[in-house]
Amino acid sequence: SKVALLFWVRIQLEDYIAASIIPSVQDFSRSWRTGLAFCLLIHRHNPLLIPDILSRTDSQDKAVWLELLTLAFDLASSHMGISNYLEPADLIDVDHPHEPSVMMYVSEYYKVMSSAQKNESPTARQEK
């Protein structure tokens, strides 16, 4: 469900939100336009894939959005096996991205990340 997936996203990003790297994710539309939320989910999954993302800030520059969305979609595809359901233009070129499409794409992150987290030992999670 939408509420459960949004709750999962907020838990995954809570450290980044607490550190003021990103505002709290409020929806599956405008909250994802900049690409930063996708990048931070990837960083949460595997910090080595995107080590410099913590130095980035939420920008209003659409060129930065394009860069971050392209990076996130490419990494999700090549390292997490997540199909590219979305293109950066789907998020950048509209005021309100199509919520069901973003939800479907984020649910793929959930599947990959929750499966990986279940396979980790509690000790390995604490060491991160």
From TrEMBL:
The Calponin-homology (CH) domain, residue ranges: 1-114
Listed PANTHER family: SPECTRIN/FILAMIN RELATED CYTOSKELETAL PROTEIN
Protein name: Calponin-homology (CH) domain-containing protein
